[in-house]
## 1
Amino acid sequence: MPGFVEKPEPVEVPGLTHLHTGKVRDLYRNAAGELVMVASDRTSVYDWVLPTEIPDKGRILTQLSLWWFEQLTDLAPNHVLSTDVPAGAPADWAGRTLVCKSLDMVPVECVARGYLTGSGLAEYRQTRTVCGLALPEGLVDGSELPAPIFTPATKAAVGDHDENVSYEEVADQVGAEVAADLRSTTLAVYGRARDIARERGVILADTKFEFGFDGERLTLADEVLTPDSSRFWPADLWQPGRAQPSFDKQFVRDWLTSPAADWDRTGELPPPALPPEIVERTRAKYAEAYERLTGLSWS
């Protein structure tokens, strides 16, 4: 089963207990019971966490999430308490560390789609539905939907695929009231972010959120609206009926499926190391996404 090509050893920091190493983030708990999330420069493609890191990626994801959290505070609270680096942690943790509330997490990936692509497109081609929601005839890859839709998924372990589920299945799992809150908050946050991105010449095709409860308050967790959790397309190049250029790790995907990589994504062998030019182009694309969306420069 795919997973890490080589799983890293967790960094030991006095006063922190290592909880989990994910595809991108390492999770710790401090003495106060708060969570400490550290975004690495790892990247994952086709269910593999690759052996080659993308410099600055973890910092870009963290800083972009923080920027978005600020844009969304009136719609949904978030889990961030501080960005202070714990005493004794490596200097490299600066800019990529979040100290967060420990939430009662909802076991659902909350996906909003405003455009048809990815797994939604694959389901639509078979059934003219996405997560049980009927869609009009004639849509193609990249089509804008008549209105944004909530298409939840179950959260998968490293190396497994998230599985799209219906709204009814979510309601059965978490209760009707929580399911309704998840749907309305997800679509409200997506709508705000879509409009902000559009003003900056960027299409937010789809995105996924994770939520937890801080007491009785539904609270945004993890990362939000980054190129790892969202599909961002340059608006001036949008052309339905084909795969869209995107602000993410598409350079990595394209290289791994090219003859140059000499790798079979359906086989059992792990992917090879990335060449320097693919690493640099991918880093530049993440930085461009940050700059386009925030209006700030990435140095």
## 2
Amino acid sequence: MIAGLTAIVWLWWRDGGISGVHNVGEGFTSFGRITGLIAGYLLALQVLLLARLPVLEWTAGFDRLTRWHGLNGKATFYVIVAHVVLITIGYAMTRGVSIFAEIPLLLSGYYGMVAAVIGTAFLIVVSGTSIAIVRGRVRYEWWYLVHLLTYVGLALVWFHETATGLDFIANPWATAWWTGLYLLTLQLLILFRIAQPVIRAFVHQLRVTRVVTEAPGVVSVHMTGKHLDWLSPRAGQFFLWRFLAPGLALESHPFSLSAAPDGKAFRITVRQLGDFTRKLSTLRQGTRVFAEGPFGGVTEDTRSHTGVALIAGGIGITPLRAMAGVLTGDVVLIYRVLHDSDIVFREELEALASRRHFKIHYVVGDHRDPKNRDLLSPDHLRRMVPDLARRDVYLCGPPAMVDTLEPNIRAAGVSSAHIHVERFALA
């Protein structure tokens, strides 16, 4: 990333980024140029961060890449806005006209400017829906489809910059380098987001075997395939799943394995919250499945203590249920739900606890009830697990619960290095 930004700044500097500035208007224009270049580079980076590149997945992990993707998306949006504002002001001052008078002149006088406006509008829509989905105001299905506009925006940005950018018009080498960057981004995207899942689907022949209702509004999807051990999945990890069934094939969603993988079969367990998840209950035996992954670093590999505490909230039990099937040593499971009917895998968990000799604490109740305000407080955690500070803690649940509970775990004496977190959020 730093090398790419350095090359961009050098290109801008070489083409008069500073030496070519002789008045205020040219200063605004010059800084408009560099923000435009940076925005184009950040947009390509935005696509690459979630292009499923193995080197990035191995070194950073899907969760961290997702956070970087969100931060980079905000930065890209702000830099694009800065570019539009600076260029408009700079050109207006150079011409000696008002900003409002300059806008139609830019649109009509520069080749590729309309493409830039359309591309920017697409990126604004993508940014807006990203904020809305975090707040629960947009369904995942619409957010996923709208995000495809990012790729259209990327193409339009390239067309705009190479057609109108001063750094490219008179510099064929710069144009070739910039085009190569975008072509490389496109090739990696096609290879790892499209070709790799198709090849894996052909090799592994993953299909749905049955769908089981676990609790009201919760279903498990069982799948079998060939050579699943080649994927090297671990208990606690998740895949991005795409089911080739009507109404489902255009979307992929992240769901954790809810049973320890054995090389022959997978199981995921899903709470039915939206159109996509509700349709999972209608999957037929034999439905083909594309699986991208595995992702996630919340596995036994991060363990450093003999004792382990698994803390799950709601459907966040799924990866911890898988881990409970493989963990050895002193294990305690804390399962937080609002109502008894929300408990998933009760019989499985109790059978595992009996067979593998670990303890289960069901924490049931609504925090809005005054008598439940102490639930999962530092004192409550220590009462359930007196030696909590000497354990690794695996925490999984909705983001709001995790954000509330993680400080409580630290207050109970567990160091941050021994708290391993998985937030059940859209990626």
## 3
Amino acid sequence: MFKYNCLNPIAKIGLSHFDKTYVKCDDINDADGVLVRSASMHEMELPDNLLAVARAGAGVNNIPLDKCAQKGIVVFNTPGANANGVKELVIAGLLLASRGIVDGINWVSSQAGVEDVAKLAEKQKKQYAGKEITGKKIGIIGLGAIGVKVANAVSNLGMEVYGYDPYISVEAAWKLSRNIHHVYDINEIYANCDYITIHVPLMDATKKMINTEAIRLMKNDAVILNFARDLLVDEEAVVSALKVGKIGKYVSDFPTPLTVGVEGCIVIPHLGASTEESEDNCAVMAVDQLRDYLENGNIKNSVNFPSCDMGVCEKEGRIVVFHKNIANMITKFTGAFGDLDINISELNNKSKGEYAYTMFDVDSKVTDEIVDKLKVIKGVFRVRVIK
């Protein structure tokens, strides 16, 4: 029997994927697994019995990843589950920035009760005339699940699409339209594109990557769209560029004191993944990944440990080890099994940065003795018996 705790409301369709062997609990201290959306876990004391955290969404900056890793707590996210919802809002943002739609709607609302509003609108509408996006150049920084969908969609709308991603996966490349120009220098996007949209994770290397220098290279009147993370953009630099007319618009899905109410900023209240479909998809993926790990020890889409999958155990026992990614660990593990005359029928070892994960299927029941021998090996964070 496994126990799970929800730190945020999770879509019912996702929770329906738990069977009778799972019980919902109200206290995280009793939970084997946690489901979370936006709640911050940084100040929480993580209980020793907690095995996994599943984020129903892509971003994980509300979760202490290293702290979890060092306790052998797997953190999952759900990449791609909300990609279509975000893609559609990016297209909406693109159109809002190209035409004076927002200002026009606001003007019409201000004319409530005016009898000849239709006649006034005919005179006023020239103030909100914009540009069509067909034939314009758009640069997409980051060709992951969302970036690829955006690239294909805007290509179908007749835009000339330039994509930049030095780490594009084979899977993403296969999904990318052949009409996309793949560039290898991000400065080509800054210099040549009328619209620039960013779809990369927030890391030290990407923080404020859209900065004064990047803006200096951009076309006058370029439009920047940010539906990824607010801190990817130096918003002070953006606001300064808007004031002097260097860029045309900044569209962001992240309200901040720097941009709200600023002329030229179209700020949306973080609606990117706020669709019923996205929330359902994220919940289902989060629950399925959590279950596969709790029941089988398999890891998929973890952000702090490597993917590792040995299916369902068909041997007498399965044991998994979380440890540092350092030399001779496998030798020490197999030596411990050998000392107790336990035969390893299959093993899988994967690493991710400084952390590693090793799965063992053995031909005899896992005993406390082998668990204790593995736990005392220097560099081991956690040992878990699956079967």
## 4
Amino acid sequence: MKKSILAIFALALMSLGNGQSNSMVQDPILSSGDYRFLEALTATIIDSSRIFPGQHVADGMGTNNTGMALIKPGGRGSYPAFWIRDYAMSLETGFVSSHEQRDMLILTASTQANSTWITKNGALVPFGAIADHIRMDDSLPIYFPGTYSYEDQGTPEFGRTPPYGDQFFFVHMAHYYVETTADVSILDKEINGMTLIDRLEIAFNVPPARLTDHIVTTTDHFRGIDFGFRDVMTITGDLCYPSILKYKAALQLADVFGKLNNEVKAQKYSLIAAKIKDAIPLLFMDDRGMLKASTGKGNQADVWSTALAIYYGILSEEKTKKTSRFLSQAYENGHLSYKGNIRHILTTDDFSDSTAWEFSLAKKNTYQNGAYWGTPTGWVCYAIAKTNFKLAQQLAKEYVEDLRENDFRKGPEYGAPFECFHPSGHTQNPLYMTTLTCPLAAFKNMMGP
């Protein structure tokens, strides 16, 4: 392979939260005590989310008949299925064994849509689509949010095509497994008559994209959810968050094709990543340095997209510093976070007095429409630390302090880590996994080796 092409994705992969170089760190983002607490709590939550063969977690379809251990989005009885997204976002903690990874990777590949079909509700499942979640009782893939029913999936409020992020998380699952086990042979493994590497390429190309720069795009009449952590929103046009995920997946495909000594395809995906990287700030950045979620409905400044783009090294150094200073000011002014947890939308950027996002199925200041989430805290800390490391430390400390105060291990009346909460008293789903796993992975990278 040409050295220049290797350099393109080798350097870029270093900024994807996996071995990320971080010269900005002079002090630990967390004290050793706080870090050990977070690490131990995360290990406990992942273990609580791990469902063993034959284990029953909920009425109905909540018995694991897959013959393998599954990791669902959290502990107790919530979300009784295998969600690709939450699992993939938790891998970089290092708390999932290689055997478990292989099993869940193959399960995901085996439920990839083997043909294009239309649900009874009129939604399209494209060939190569990856499930939103997989039932544990009968391994049936559910490609759309909002239901556990294979027959009733695909209602209009949750899109006419499956969410766009899961295809890229599938690539991440495979890349992480290969990277951490050195088992390159799995890429040539046939699953239902098709090799894994072919399945990865097909999945990558499922979400609709602009022909010029590969940015993920959607329309009002043929809408897919941009990212599952806002699946009760209507967001249309060119889409920022799934394009960030696609950038990462393109680099990962370049890397695995490099391991397979396929220079042509390694170069192809490196160039796709480069085009996406160039396009994102041009399409989505406002004059404050924030990235908007889209160019259509819901085209509001999106904290999650903005922080993740900095975390993955997509923005230039100049733009990163501008955005970092703005986020630092928003944090100091109380518009960004509450007890170390992060809103999707700054409180100053709410669409109206009645809703944070322009179109939402959730009431304002509940769930994805204005509640505060721990999932992106690590990315936001990383972004703020680019210009104000002390503030980033303060935000990280607030996040851990809330976990300590409400740690579910204190008793049944406690529930942290929650999926999200709001000072009005709203809470959603205790023992939620990515509330810990995503920040821990980011903090690990900020702490260094």
